[in-house]
Specification:
The protein has about 325 residues and is α+β, with helices and mostly antiparallel strands. The chain folds into two domains: about 110 residues, CBS-domain (Roll), CATH 3.10.580; about 160 residues, Orthogonal Bundle (Tetracycline Repressor, domain 2). A hairpin with a 5-residue loop joins strand 5 and strand 6. It is elongated, with a radius of gyration of 27 Å. The chain starts with a helix and ends with a helix.
């Protein structure tokens, strides 16, 4: 509690979800010219004063982070060894303003238990320890799941039970209304193509399959892209888009060919098989593009891109899938 209050005073100008607000400065530090024996003595003397002892952070004379050494290595090495000769130099670090989700992703990517925090001059400020990283990982995972359902506030069991029923009703209703209006719009699109359906009733049976495949591929693409946006590396959008297209296009063609083959073999309806096959190719490919475009659009407007993976994007995908399906049907029936 005391550490949190100190962080709030030092980094009160930063977001509550930044590394500066969740770090601890009660971690082992020692100068780079010290020996392993001196590190051991420090740990034995000050162990009760540390919040976390996964690593010993090595500093230079200006308190800049020079390296790191794990506690496990400390007790394996000869006491006479200089820490500067055995430390891991230039360790992964973050700034106080770094978002806590990026801290977690760095910890996972580099397989480190705690992440050091330095200022713009490289001065060591503290570290985000493993218990906090696990807590943030759980919290962010729950938040992403809730956002996908259109619930955007922090969640806890006690909070759920103590919040008034009307408040829950008010928060959930707008997103469900989006789904309802989307469903009505989709029904209007289907009714507009009623004449097409009357020509081949069997087409109606495949509408759910076309919509499902678009939603499945779109959800996969969005989940990966939203997670990519949270990583510390700079996003090279053009390269990412090319890579996704190189994956999505053959996927859509393969699934379209499978659908065409199975439908033609089972029902013997060439027109239906062709319509479904082409619809799969187009809807899956476009769903993959939407899976990148919508989160990127939210990200550009400084909104949480995870929101784009909720009812909003589902409605857009469903309506576009139905429109594509019937446009393909009209064109195929008009030609063949």
């Amino acid at each position: 509690m005391e550490n949190k209050q100190n962080n709030n005073q030092k980094f009160g100008h930063l977001s509550a979800d930044s590394a500066g607000r969740i770090l601890t400065d009660k971690v082992p530090t020692i100068l780079r010219d010290a020996t392993i024996g001196e590190v051991e003595a420090l740990l034995l003397k000050e162990v009760k004063n540390f919040d976390n002892i996964n690593y010993v952070y090595i500093l230079d004379s200006r308190n800049q982070l020079a390296g790191v050494i794990s506690i496990k290595e400390v007790f394996r090495l000869p006491k006479s060894a200089k820490v500067s000769s055995v430390m891991i130099a230039n360790p992964v670090s973050v700034r106080p303003s770094t978002d806590q989700e990026r801290v977690v992703m760095l910890s996972i990517k580099h397989n480190i238990k705690s992440v050091p925090v330095v200022d713009k001059n490289g001065v060591f400020l503290g570290a985000v320890p493993s218990d906090i990283i696990l807590s943030v990982l759980h919290k962010e995972g729950v938040e992403d799941l809730l956002r996908s359902a259109g619930i955007l506030k922090n969640y806890s069991v006690s909070g759920f039970l103590s919040t008034k029923t009307f408040e829950h009703f008010r928060k959930r209703l707008p997103w469900l209304l989006v789904g309802l209006l989307g469903g009505l719009l989709a029904a209007s699109v289907i009714s507009f193509f009623e004449e097409t359906l009357s020509q081949i009733i069997l087409l109606a049976a495949f509408i759910p399959a076309v919509v499902y495949m678009a939603d499945a591929v779109g959800a996969q693409t969005q989940t990966i892209f939203v997670r990519t946006l949270s990583l510390p590396e700079k996003l090279r959008l053009k390269e990412y888009l090319k890579k996704e297209l190189a994956i999505s296009f053959p996927l859509s063609v393969f699934l379209g060919l499978i659908a065409f083959t199975l439908i033609f073999w089972w029902w013997g309806e060439f027109q239906v098989a062709l319509i479904i096959g082409l619809s799969f190719i187009l809807t899956i490919f476009i769903a993959a593009l939407l899976g990148i475009f919508l989160p990127w659009l939210f990200f550009k407007f400084k909104l949480d891109p995870a929101i784009a993976s909720g009812p909003f994007s589902t409605v857009i995908r469903d309506i576009l899938s139905i429109i594509i399906f019937f446009v393909v049907a009209v064109l195929v029936l008009g030609i063949i």
